[in-house]
Design a protein that fits this description.
With 296 residues, the protein is an alpha/beta fold. The protein has helices spanning 44-56, 70-79, 100-114, 136-152, 166-173, 194-202, 222-231, 235-245, 257-262, 272-279; strands at residues 4-8, 19-23, 29-31, 34-36, 60-62, 88-93, 121-124, 159-162, 182-186, 206-210, 248-252. Strand 6 (88-93), helix 3 and strand 7 form a beta-alpha-beta unit.
Length: 296
Amino acid sequence: MGYRKEVRKNKFEKGGDSMTNIALYNGILMPEIGFGTWKAPTGKVTVEAVKAAIECGYTHIDCAAIYGNEKEVGLGIKESNVDRKNLFITSKLWNDVRGYQETIDAFNQTLSDLQLDYLDLYLIHWPRPVKYHDNYIEKNIESWKAMEDLYKQGKIKAIGVSNFKVHHMEEIMENCEIKPMVNQIEFHPSCLEKEIRDFCKKEDIVVTGYSPLANGKVFECKELVEFSEKYGVSIAQLCIRYALQHNVIPLVKSVTKERIKANLNVNFVISDEDMEKIDKITTCGGSYKDSDNILF
């Protein structure tokens, strides 16, 4: 199955292109570029960055309890004075929480911190945290059932996972009523996660990609410098477009308004030949976190 797309004009965008939305298998629309808040500091900087992102045209905001800044993200959303129904807000269940009631409590805390009545997407952040390493399948299923119930109650519009390998997704799917709608993984040149993406495509699970700039390593890649010059775009714009053409929703980060705005300006196409060349780049590295053996 391929991803279904629908174009919807972003009402808050100041004269830019229309935002394309990816339809999840339950029909919920997810904007194809997200604004990430990982490592955004607590305090006014994050509040202003979220407000700037929404003003520039982002309607998809990605956050997580472990980032420690959900109160600031929520305040930025509130101060942007946009209609909540026109935003897509994601958060994640952190690794120190598993179990049915524990998951509901953590979810409610996130809602309180964000000052929201519901989430558009809620994810299990990592599949096998060290705290639950030996019984992670059982504990993940307990948390997943809580998320299914929150979904049925309308408190979450979509549910999914993050950093899940194929076997982790299969373990959930063998024991669930509602299969994951999204898997968020690291994605950038040199970190393609093709096996996971192929599985998600087959199962109609949408992939979102964090660290599309490889935590800055893409700026040191000679080949990407050459491609950015060829297309007359920044390296960041090139990597965002690269993710989109691989059917991955990139989650881009910045606290600088000019860069926030520029990262949406990706209305160009990388040729198939150049996509194949970028696929072969190996110098950008990756975080190399093994989700079967993480230590947090």
